[in-house]
Each structure stands twice: as structure tokens, then as C-alpha cells.
Amino acid sequence: MFHHSPFWSLAAFWDPSTNITYAFLHCTSDPEEDSTPRLKHFLTESAPHSLHPLLLPLLIMDLETNLTLRDEEEYTRDINSIEEETKQAPGTSATPVNSLDLDLPLTVQRLNGCSIFLSLIERESAAVLLHLETLRSMTSELHSSNPKLATSGKRLLMHVDFLTNSRKNLFLRLQNLQRRSQTQLDFVKFPFPLEQPPL
To answer: ∠ at Cα 142 (53, 150), nearest 5°?
Structure first.
């Protein structure tokens, strides 16, 4: 589902005759993240009141969204810091920054790294929105053919809608961060006007 750590791979089958979902889940992640134990915890907590065949993929997208929110906070701090260093943040002093006070190669490296990662999670946020749209459609289809899933399905749809709105808002914030990083890149690549050559 996602192309950076944690990397999730899920295959599942729901047997309508027994109402049992069989799933194989693989996750590659930093052990400190406890991604699989956290997912098991969410699944155990959710099972008593909203057990549904599509619950597991939704929980994966929910967990991944929380991790992306953390990434967004980290890169927001980085860009805020760079804007302060270059004196390009809103409300900063009108005094121009001294070029000798800036480590331009390092600043460009930081901004390029930020821009590349933001592009990655922007694409993945767009992919999550497509997954959520598919999930909503599949849930509605299951309701039509299996009325016994109606109650848990309504809860699932509420979760889908909440997560969709969260992702849309996150996507807009990521786009804004990307614009801010590009603005800073434009500035640090050529922060000052050329001096006129002597006549």
C-alpha cells in the first residue's frame, strides 16, 4: 500500500457463509515503531463493536495517516526554522539577512531533502484518498448483498468519511509546505541581487 517505512502488504478473504475474514499481513518497519503490535491493538479494540471484513485495511490507512501527520509536523518545524534563518518568515525583521550568516549549501540540501520527501507523501496521500474511495464503494456493495453487515458497515463508513476528511486536509497542508520549501529554495539559490560591474 505504501512505499516507505512502514511498508504494508495485505491479502484478505471474507467468507460470507461463516462471516470470517482470513488475512495475511506483512509489515516492514522500524522495530521502535511497533507498527504490527499497534495494529493488533487497534483491531482488538475495534472488534467488539465494529467487526467488519474491511476493517483491517481501514485500520492500516488510519495508522499510516497518523505516521504521516507526524512527518508533516516534523517538516513544518524544519521549514519554519529555515524561514527564520533566512529571515523570510512572516513578521520577521525587515533587516536583510547577511549572506555570511547562512550556510547556503547545507540549507539547499535541507530544502531539497524536504521537497523530495514532501513529494513522496503527497503522492501517497493522493493514493490513500483513492483507496478510501474504493473502500467506501466496496462497503456499500457489501451492505446491499449482506444485510447482516449493515450495523458494523455504518460505523465503518463513518470512520472512512472521517479519515477521508483528515487526509484531504493533510494533503492541502502538504501542498502548502511544498510551496514554502520551493519559495525558500528560490531565495537561497540566489538570495541577493547581482552587483553592477564597474564601468
So the answer is: 85
The pLDDT of residue 131 is 92
Task: Catalogue the E-assigned strands of the chain.
Answer: 7-15, 20-28
The separation between the first and the last C-alpha atoms of the chain, rounded to the nearest angstrom, is 62
Q: Is 90 exposed, middle or buried (0-12, 13-18, 19+ CB in 10 A)?
A: exposed
Q: Cell 460505523 appears where?
A: 155
Per the listing, cell 483491517 goes with 56
Q: d(Cα 51, Cα 151) in Å, to the nearest integer?
A: 10
- Give the chain's mean pLDDT: 83
Looking at per-residue pLDDT, the higher value among 80 and 103 belongs to 80
Residue 132 CB contacts under 8 Å (≥ 6 apart), including other chains: 61, 160, 163, 164, 167
> Which segment of 2-11, 23-32, 80-89, 188-197 scores lowest on mean pLDDT?
188-197
Tell me the β-bridge partners of 25.
10
Q: Which residues does 99 contact at the CB level (< 8 Å), separation at least 6?
A: 191, 192
